[in-house]
Design brief:
globular, 3-stranded antiparallel β-sheet, alpha+beta, 43% helix
């Protein structure tokens, strides 16, 4: 939790929090905003509007990357990260490309239409792009439409633009031209030494922010092969000697910051135990691991039944319940369901976390 900045020392800004984690899963946009803000220093006062503004100005970009699914990525990192993983993303989508008729010719044509639609800062919503594609005789709905957009993202044509508000007040994603929003863009897939260096950067950033973690954890998170991750670790040690170390326990080898190999003995806890955290179900504290996720103490993410909440309540870092938010007449109500009755101290800690979430939203917040 300390390495992920859910505990002190926290990030000085939301950009710093994102750079530390490299990529943050964000298909649940409203909750993903909180993922960045809760890792920032309390006095920084980062709130929902700050995250939305960072997405609007392009500091934080939201696109399909890694496994693939929606992720937040800093604009300085998306170019090389896409150059490292685009081929594997396209390979993983080949079946759906065939199913939706998106062959090389169709992808080139739709990519050209989409690029022309958003160039010059003319950011468009999904609905606007559907109308433009339809007018060009291309699919404008269903999976065929969705995979045209995803293909264009992975091909460095589209990326997230400035969000807009719908008539009902909901924040809507827009698309922009990749080259107008992303710095350090590669022309195509990284090869040779460039690719090895990128693998090293990824391994260094992943294990420094999520360690202790295994090679298999990193491979599942990044979409890379275990062979690539092992190569990345070798290069990472050359790029930054002494930064990463290794330790064995539970019959597995874990990689982590070298200073933590002997155990952490840093500053005292910022608050007395217990500590309650409300995190999204796709938070990197959950999704950053696969082989070692069982240390969380429960099953997450999971598919809820009977309309139960999806997001995760942690007590002292371990899964203890589920939550979600709802908005009624300008008030945020949190539906929180614990796995067991809370102690009086845990109840106080839970109320403090609810209050912190309310400050982030800038709304009165209460437990439903």
């Amino acid at each position: 939790m300390r390495r992920q900045q859910l505990r002190a020392p926290h990030a000085g800004s939301l950009a710093e929090a994102l750079r530390n984690l490299l990529a943050v899963q964000s298909q649940e946009f409203a909750y993903a905003r909180w993922t960045l803000a809760q890792r920032c220093q309390p006095h920084a006062g980062v709130n929902a509007a700050d995250v939305e503004q960072a997405v609007a100005d392009g500091t934080v970009l939201r696109t399909h990357i890694l496994r693939p699914t929606w992720h937040f990525v800093h604009r300085d990192d998306l170019g090389w990260l896409m150059g490292l993983s685009a081929d594997r993303l396209h390979q993983g989508n080949k079946g759906m490309y065939r199913q939706t008729g998106l062959d090389q010719e169709a992808a080139a044509r739709s990519g050209h239409v989409l690029a022309r639609a958003v160039e010059g800062g003319a950011h468009k919503t999904r609905e606007e792009l559907a109308a433009i594609l339809g007018a060009a005789g291309l699919p404008s709905k269903g999976l065929a439409f969705i995979y045209q957009l995803m293909h264009a993202e992975i091909s460095r044509i589209l990326v997230s633009g400035t969000p807009v508000r719908s008539a009902g007040g909901a924040l809507k994603q827009t698309y922009a031209l990749f080259d107008e929003r992303v710095t350090g863009t590669a022309d195509g897939p990284l090869t040779g030494t460039d690719r090895e260096q990128a693998l090293g950067r990824l391994a260094l950033r992943y294990f420094a922010s999520r360690g202790p973690a295994t090679v298999k954890d990193c491979a599942a998170w990044s979409g890379l092969t275990m062979k690539d991750v092992n190569l990345g670790l070798t290069v990472a040690r050359e790029l930054s000697p002494g930064t990463l170390g290794a330790a064995s326990f539970d019959g597995l080898e874990f990689h982590l910051a070298s200073e933590d190999v002997g155990g952490f003995s840093g500053p005292p806890q910022e608050t007395a135990l217990p500590r309650v955290d409300l995190i999204q179900c796709y938070d990197e504290y959950v999704m950053g691991y696969s082989q070692s996720r069982h240390f969380l103490g429960g099953k997450a993410p999971y598919f809820p039944e009977d309309n139960s909440p999806l997001h995760v309540v942690l007590v002292d870092g371990r899964l203890a319940g589920w939550w979600r938010h709802a908005f009624t007449n300008g008030v945020c109500e949190l539906d929180i369901r614990m796995d067991r009755p809370t102690t009086p101290d845990e109840d106080i800690a839970l109320d403090a976390e609810v209050e912190r979430y309310g400050r982030f939203l800038g709304l009165p917040t209460k437990r439903a």
